[in-house]
Design brief:
Number of strands of chain B: 14
Structural class of chain B: alpha/beta
Number of helices of chain B: 18
Largest sheet of chain B: 7 strands, mixed
CATH superfamily of the largest domain in chain B: Thiamin diphosphate (ThDP)-binding fold, Pyr/PP domains
CATH architecture of the largest domain in chain B: 3-Layer(aba) Sandwich
Number of strands of chain A: 5
Oligomer: heterodimer
Bound molecules: iron/sulfur cluster
Number of domains of chain B: 2
Radius of gyration of chain A: 14 Å
Distance between the termini of chain A: 18 Å
CATH topology of the largest domain in chain B: Rossmann fold
Structural class of chain A: alpha+beta
Radius of gyration of chain B: 32 Å
Helix content of chain A: 10-25%
CATH topology of chain A: Alpha-Beta Plaits
Number of helices of chain A: 2
Strand order of the largest sheet of chain A: 1-4
Helix content of chain B: 25-40%
Chain lengths: 95, 488
């Protein structure tokens, strides 16, 4: 993982259970860091996967995705919150 | 991805609080919407939910759900929800908003719902400038029912009902709702947006938020029309459907703001003082006939009459009930009068339900009366079993058969029609019986009955006959009481 100076501005979390594999997030991401899985999930969808790095945190994939909870976009603390809904998540065990 | 790295990140976008965590749908899919993959309804719902979160109005938002693919909004939105009949969402929204002016009312409709069967409701809600937010999802087809042509279907677009494509000559032109409503003077904000690419999607989110915010600020009617992909009915992939919005739909439905009066209009004051209940009679100019609250002179403090009047058509069943209700109203009681006709105007059966009460009436239906006025034998046989224990039966006949008198029911049976004949006209039978009823119950001062009678009976001859019949009815009961006391 990148060190503190060189971190991505954004991080992505995708819910395999909520994704319907429509591919709109893949189309929406200018940084091309989302793709659809080869395998199928429980419901038979190829679901969205994050490349693991390169997300800008722009949040456009969230708006392009029709499912309420399939995508969560995280943004590096201290960077401008373009969409203004910054909330700190509490992560068990984190400092 | 380790926790230390994540700990430096804040959530920028996530499932809105305005959505339920789990959706209480049938079956196992309680964490997904019912929408097809790539359906624009999902995006629009998310935009609305984010707007509700951002504006901090979740606990006072009421969503009016339509008929169509988006009928299940109430499974997803953790706000107040009403599901309206097909097309009626703006009318329901009007009622909700007016009765709860502090609530934020969003009517959410598709194009089949809003622009076809509901075209009148949206037109008039917009024209009245109701302070509501209308979300109008246009996907140019009836999706839920399998893709029939609707008013918004494009020229040339194939559907199950336009297999060769819509033709203007046969089905008319696509209805441009935003343009149409923008010709009205009242709407405050009307914009058409699309879900055709990232830029359009971001604009749609802004427009929806703005339309809700307009209502929060009390500005008036806002409508956002969203050109929304329906990959299933359009028979396209989600990405192709997105392109079709941008490349094809937009040519018929140009995007943009069609009306914006948000800078000019004054915010409405929803806190206008409401008149107290006691002021309403004066506002309606009926103060001289109505007395509200507290002791009513000449009326017992507890009145709870459930009266059923039944007979054949032409016996004056309905008039009897009307005089009773009107007199009760004059006296300041809560009243209801509900007629129930047989199919025949003459010689058929006729009955009515009357309630008189000192407190608000829950239902005007009288299914178990405490007073039954039976003007003929069939009515007695039909309704006597419904009379409450301890109640009264007034019967137009010589005697009430024993089998009709269960449960301590009191009765007064007299050949009222013969007595009416002797007084001059058999048609005043009803007033004789009413007079007896008034004497038995003692709830209404005669003055109120007199004024009710004179407002309902126009013929001078009948008015005077009716008046004397009422008095005669009262004394018939008093005499019977005397006779019974003597007999004991
Ligand atoms: S937030 Fe932006 S950069 Fe990151 S995955 Fe989504 S669209 Fe791509
Ligand atoms: S847009 Fe949403 S539902 Fe569609 S593939 Fe991406 S994450 Fe899945
Ligand atoms: S039929 Fe069309 S509008 Fe209805 S849920 Fe599916 S994609 Fe959406």
């Amino acid at each position: 993982m990148a060190d503190a100076e060189n971190r991505d501005r954004g991080q992505l979390r995708l819910s395999e259970d909520e994704c319907k594999g429509c591919g709109l997030c893949v189309e929406a991401c200018a940084f091309k860091v989302i793709s659809l899985s080869e395998g199928l999930n429980h419901y038979g969808y190829r679901t969205a996967m994050y490349a693991g790095a390169g997300c800008s945190g722009c949040g456009i994939c969230f708006l392009a995705c029709p499912e309420p909870g399939a995508i969560t976009v995280l943004r590096l603390r201290g960077t401008a919150a373009a969409h203004g809904r910054g909330r700190v998540i509490s992560i068990p065990g984190a400092a | 991805m380790s926790n230390e790295v994540l700990a430096d990140y804040d959530i920028a976008q996530c499932k809105a609080d305005a959505f339920y965590d789990q959706y209480d749908r049938k079956g196992e899919l309680q964490h997904q919407t019912h929408y097809c993959p790539g359906c624009g309804h999902g995006n629009i719902s998310k935009m609305l939910a984010s707007a509700i979160d951002d504006l901090g109005i979740q606990d006072r938002t009421i969503l009016i759900n339509p008929v169509g693919c988006s009928v299940f909004g109430y499974y997803y939105f953790d706000v107040g929800n009403v599901q309206a009949a097909h097309g009626r969402a703006p009318a329901v929204a009007t009622a909700v908003k007016r009765s709860r002016p502090h609530s934020i009312v969003v009517s959410y409709q598709g194009d089949g719902d809003l622009s076809a069967i509901g075209s009148a409701e949206i037109l008039h809600a917009a024209n009245r400038g109701e302070n509501i937010t209308a979300i109008f999802v246009n996907n140019a087809t009836y999706s839920m029912t399998g893709g029939q042509a609707g008013p918004t279907t494009l020229i040339g677009q194939r559907s199950t009902t336009t297999p060769n494509g819509r033709s203007a000559a046969n089905e008319g032109y696509p209805l441009r709702v935003s343009e149409l409503l923008s010709t009205l003077a009242a709407p405050v904000y009307i914009e058409r947006v699309g879900l055709g690419n990232n830029k359009q999607i971001a604009q749609a989110a802004r427009a929806i938020r703005r339309a809700v915010e307009n209502q929060v600020r009390g500005l008036g009617f806002s409508l956002i029309e969203i050109l929304s992909p329906c990959p299933t009915i359009w028979k396209m992939t989600p990405v192709e459907a997105q392109h079709w919005v941008r490349d094809v739909m937009e040519r018929t439905y140009p995007l943009g703001v069609f009306c914006d009066r948000t800078k000019e209009v004054e915010p409405r004051n929803v806190d206008l003082p409401k008149p107290a209940l006691s002021e309403i009679p004066a506002l309606l100019e009926i103060a001289d006939t109505v007395q509200l609250a507290g002791e009513i002179p000449g009326v017992p403090s507890v009145v709870d009459l459930h009266i059923r009047v039944a007979g054949f058509g032409g016996q004056g069943v309905l008039l009897l009930g009307e005089v009773l209700a009107e007199a009760g109203l004059n006296a300041g009681l809560e009243v209801s009068w509900l007629p129930s006709y047989g199919p025949e105007m003459r010689s058929g059966t006729s009955n009515c339900h009357v309630r008189l009460s000192h407190s608000p009436i829950d239902s005007p239906m009288v299914s178990s009366p405490n007073v039954l006025i039976a003007m003929n034998e069939p009515s007695l046989r039909k309704f006597s079993a419904t009379v409450r224990p301890g109640g009264w039966i007034l019967y137009n006949g010589d005697a009430v058969p024993q089998e009709c008198l269960q449960n301590d029911i009191h009765s007064l049976a007299l050949p009222f029609t013969h007595l009416a004949d002797e007084l001059g006209d058999s048609r005043i039978t009803n007033m004789l019986m009413l007079g007896a009823l008034l004497e038995i119950t003692g709830v209404l001062p005669q003055a109120h009955v007199d004024s009710a009678l004179s407002s309902l009976v126009k013929s001078a001859r009948f008015l005077s006959l009716d008046r004397s019949a009422l008095q005669q009815g009262r004394s018939l009961y008093r005499e019977r009481q005397k006779a019974m006391l003597l007999a004991e």
